[in-house]
From TrEMBL:
Chain ranges of the PD-(D/E)XK endonuclease-like domain: 11-208
Keyword list, A-Z: ATP-binding, DNA damage, DNA repair, Exonuclease, Helicase, Hydrolase, Nuclease, Nucleotide-binding
Protein name as catalogued: RecB family exonuclease
Biological source species: Nocardioides massiliensis
One Gene Ontology molecular-function label: exonuclease activity
InterPro entries: PDDEXK-like_dom_sf (IPR011604), PDDEXK_AddAB-type (IPR038726)
Lineage: Bacteria, Bacillati, Actinomycetota, Actinomycetes, Propionibacteriales
Pfam families, A to Z: PDDEXK_1 (PF12705)
């Protein structure tokens, strides 16, 4: 089984790389940022080699977890699609368009709906992402299909974390947050918020002055202050 998963991983990795190249033909693999920290044996970064060695085990953990939690059933949307990587394009109050892809929506053994996001790195401290998904499902399908609970599933441990109540992430709150973010973007305000060793995983850290990015001069106005 392990070698099957390794072969599957390698095939999917190549397909994804090809998709990225199709989207950005001038990009080469060495221009992709490497995420997270790994041991010195991998050069301190989670590059393709680290993923080839660790990714298949993550898939196995998912298979094991699904087998152990057979009472969690994949929800089927009102339009008849299993809720796996579903794409929603909704408008928050105030006519704010939002596109999202939701990893999974489950029907729990209790009969309640729950959104689940699969994480292969550090789990977020905050559950806003899950709250947005609950709001998206409510807007797309009606309030009776708004999930009450959200989970981050940890691919490194093969478990889901504590259930998070999503009740406070209402459509008006999400709308306010997104309206404020859009106003900042439209005003050209991109204030950096360094946290959690972000220079190790942030895709634009090279261009960010607060972490002393090597290419920040000339592109980040803060670099000249
Ligand atoms: S490196 Fe800069 S831009 Fe990236 S997350 Fe950290 S503070 Fe934000």
């Amino acid at each position: 089984m392990a070698s099957d998963l390794s072969a599957l991983w390698a095939r999917c990795w190549d397909e994804e790389l090809k998709n990225r190249k199709d989207q950005s033909p001038s990009y080469t693999q060495d221009q992709y940022s490497l995420t997270g920290r790994a041991s010195a044996a991998y050069g301190g970064k989670k590059g393709p080699e680290w993923w080839a060695d660790n990714g298949p085990a993550m898939i196995q953990r998912w298979l094991d977890w699904r087998a152990e939690n057979a009472g969690w059933e994949i929800w089927v949307t009102p339009d008849g699609n299993p809720a796996i990587e579903i794409e929603l394009n909704i408008k928050l109050p105030g006519d704010i368009p939002v596109k999202m892809f939701i990893d999974r929506v489950f029907v729990l053994p209790s009969g309640q709906l729950a959104v689940l996001d699969i994480k292969s790195g550090r789990l977020p401290d905050f559950d806003e992402q899950l709250g947005l998904y609950a709001t998206g499902l409510e807007i797309a399908y009606g309030s009776q299909f708004r999930p009450e609970w959200g989970y981050f599933w940890d691919a490194n441990k093969g478990t889901h974390g504590t259930p998070r109540s999503l009740a406070r992430w209402t459509a008006p709150l999400m709308s306010q947050l997104y309206a404020e973010a859009a106003a900042g973007i439209n005003a050209g305000s991109f204030l950096p918020k360094p946290a959690n060793n972000c220079q190790a995983w942030c895709g634009v850290s090279d261009y960010c002055s607060v972490v002393n990015g090597s290419k920040a001069a000339g592109v980040d106005p803060l670099a000249s202050l």
